[in-house]
Amino acid sequence: MADFATPETLSAALEGIDRAFLVTPADPRMVEWEKNFVDAAGRASVTW
After folding, report:
1. 3-state SS, residue 3
2. pTM for this prediction
3. Residue 13 forms part of a structural domain
C-alpha cells in the first residue's frame, strides 16, 4: 500500500513496475502528492 503524502511508501510500491499512470483527486495537496509520485517513479526507473 502506498500513500501519496509519504514518499518512502511510494518507492516501495513502485519497485518492479514498468509503467505507471498517475491520477490524483482534486485536493489542495495534489501538487505535492504528484511531485512525490513522479520523484519516486523516477528513482524506480518507471516510464510513462
Report:
1. strand
2. 0.85
3. yes
